[in-house]
Design brief:
CATH architecture of the largest domain: Up-down Bundle
Order of helices and strands: HHHHHHHHHHEEHEEHEHHHHE
Largest sheet: 4 strands, antiparallel
CATH class of the largest domain: Mainly Alpha
Structural class: mainly alpha
Helix content: 55-70%
Number of domains: 3
């Protein structure tokens, strides 16, 4: 979604949104799989303690080896104890990670299902609005894979808990020598976090351009790999044109990515300088401790390892925080999509028609959203009960638009449409659409069985399906298939599925319209374009 960058959105409100999003993400886990918190706590303790174990083990081993009475047996026992305890902690941590991974994936897929349900029920007008999908692309990026978006943040939170424990414990140890080291390293990492935040905001601001280029390249790829376009591409020599479009869109995408990389590089210089400055102070203080006799060789080794681990854990945590602050922008878009009402409700008043219906377009005008040109203007049309009516007109005259209005896919811009004297906006949309069986000019069967395509349901009246297939002249073809009407259409989900010809697909859709129960209107929007003369 588009975000305001002016005074309307203050820093405080943005922080509130961020914290609200984090609370909602954690609340989602609490509501659906609270066992994850136990795994996270286990992981935090095991991975948090392990670095400290390395620090003290090193000090003890070096102390034993450099002492006045070095005993090789004690050294070996210490090493064995360290390896055994470290291995135990790592095994527990890996087990906790393994158990949580599939649970995070399941939670993400539940959100994907919720988003798909929203797409399936939103107003049809959004499907024909390219800008809608450009703006919503970032919403779907939040659930696109395991490593980014909401699941990526959950994984980072899971790992971050152990790093925080390590950072706290190591900070306590280092502060026993010189707390200035802790302060300097924290300030250095704070600069890195600031840089990562600036880069993530810039990248997110460029998301509209990236989404546009990605959708265009994806569409070109689908076109070039779709066999239905193969003949035209070859017969009309369209390969060069498609290649040119590919190059243009890839060049545009490259330009956007280059701007992001250049921004990241320029800001990363500050992070690099801060890191070098911090390390100079850190190592200088440790060396000075050796010179003035405050540190023994064992102590120096311990603090050197502790400082190195502390610095590494801080930077890993900073990277995780930067990742979260980057990806949470897309999660916010996702929640905004889920919270936005994309359904224009009709009345909830039920409507039933036991007899043929009378349809009246009463001075109807219509223009598509975002345009100023009227497709229909002051249309008056009455269709009497049981009347058969053909709409004839030149291409682009509004015939299909009229059908979309009648089916409730769009609403009139001006005036109203009456069904048996009732404004159809005063009817439940589902009741209106239950009255209508429609076959469009662009037919697309679903990757279900033949029977499910015709019945439009998992509950199939097989006798009714067979009767409808006989009426359209498709039964002989279906009966000859290895699994009859249970054969899957298309090869998307079943490699043994059947791919019907264009005319057979249209017959299949006409059979579906005939099979729909309770209909009072049959609408044919040029559904016979691919049928042969006999059909």
């Amino acid at each position: 979604m588009m975000r305001a960058n002016n005074g309307d959105t203050t820093k405080t409100s943005r922080k509130e949104v961020r914290f609200g999003t984090v609370r909602r993400m954690i609340g989602h886990i609490r509501a659906h799989d609270p066992a994850i918190f136990a795994y996270a706590a286990t992981n935090a303790l095991t991975t948090g303690i392990e670095p400290l174990l390395s620090v003290f083990a090193l000090q003890i081993i070096i102390g034993q080896m450099t002492g006045a009475q070095a005993v090789i047996g004690k050294v070996l026992i210490t090493i064995a104890a360290y390896i055994g305890l470290s291995a135990l902690l790592r095994i527990i941590s890996i087990k906790a990670n393994t158990l949580s991974w599939s649970r995070f994936a399941y939670l993400r897929m539940e959100i994907v299902r919720e988003m798909f349900n929203k797409l399936l029920t939103m107003d049809y007008a959004n499907y024909e609005n390219a800008s809608f999908f450009n703006e919503r692309q970032s919403s779907f990026e939040a659930v696109s894979n395991n490593n980014n978006g909401i699941e990526g943040i959950w994984h980072r939170f899971f790992d971050l808990s152990g790093k925080v424990v390590s950072i706290i414990l190591l900070a306590v140890v280092i502060s026993l020598f010189n707390p200035l080291i802790v302060l300097v390293l924290v300030l250095s990492v704070a600069v890195s976090v600031f840089v990562l935040q600036k880069v993530s905001v810039f990248r997110h601001d460029m998301r509209a351009d990236i989404s546009q280029a990605y959708r265009r390249v994806s569409r070109l790829y689908e076109t070039s790999s779709d066999f239905s376009y193969g003949k035209d591409i070859r017969l009309f020599d369209l390969r060069g044109r498609i290649s040119d479009l590919f190059r243009r869109e890839i060049a545009f995408y490259k330009d956007v990515v280059t701007r992001i990389v250049n921004k990241e590089f320029s800001l990363s210089l500050y992070s690099a300088l801060a890191s070098v400055f911090a390390e100079l102070i850190m190592y200088g203080l440790l060396v000075y401790g050796i010179i003035n006799g405050r540190l023994t060789i064992a102590d120096f080794s311990m603090y050197l390892v502790a400082v190195s681990l502390f610095n590494a854990k801080l930077r890993e945590a900073a990277t995780d925080i930067g990742f979260v602050r980057d990806q949470i922008l897309y999660v916010e878009d996702m929640y905004e999509f889920l919270d936005t009402n994309l359904i224009t409700e009709n009345s909830d008043k039920p409507f039933s028609a036991d007899a043929p219906v009378r349809i009246e377009f009463e001075n109807v005008s219509f223009k598509y959203p975002g345009t100023d040109r009227y497709v229909l203007r002051n249309l008056n049309l009455t269709i009497e009960p049981s009347e058969k009516l053909a709409l004839v007109g030149v291409n682009g005259s509004g015939k299909t638009t009229l059908v979309k209005l009648l089916c409730g896919l769009y609403r009139p811009t001006e005036s109203r449409i009456l069904i048996n004297g009732t404004d159809y906006l005063d009817m439940k949309l589902s009741d209106l659409q239950n009255l209508i069986a429609m076959v469009s000019q662009d037919v697309q069967p679903l990757a279900f069985s033949v029977a499910e395509n015709v019945a439009a349901s998992e509950i199939v009246d097989r006798e009714r399906v067979e009767d409808c297939l006989r009426q359209v002249g498709l039964w002989d073809k279906v009966e000859s298939l290895p699994r009859g009407m249970d054969t899957t259409v298309l090869k998307v989900l079943d490699e043994n599925g059947v791919v019907f010809s264009g005319g057979e697909n249209q017959k299949l859709m006409i059979a579906r319209a005939l099979c729909k129960p309770g209909t009072q209107m049959m609408i044919m929007d040029e559904p016979t374009a691919s049928l042969d003369a006999l059909a």
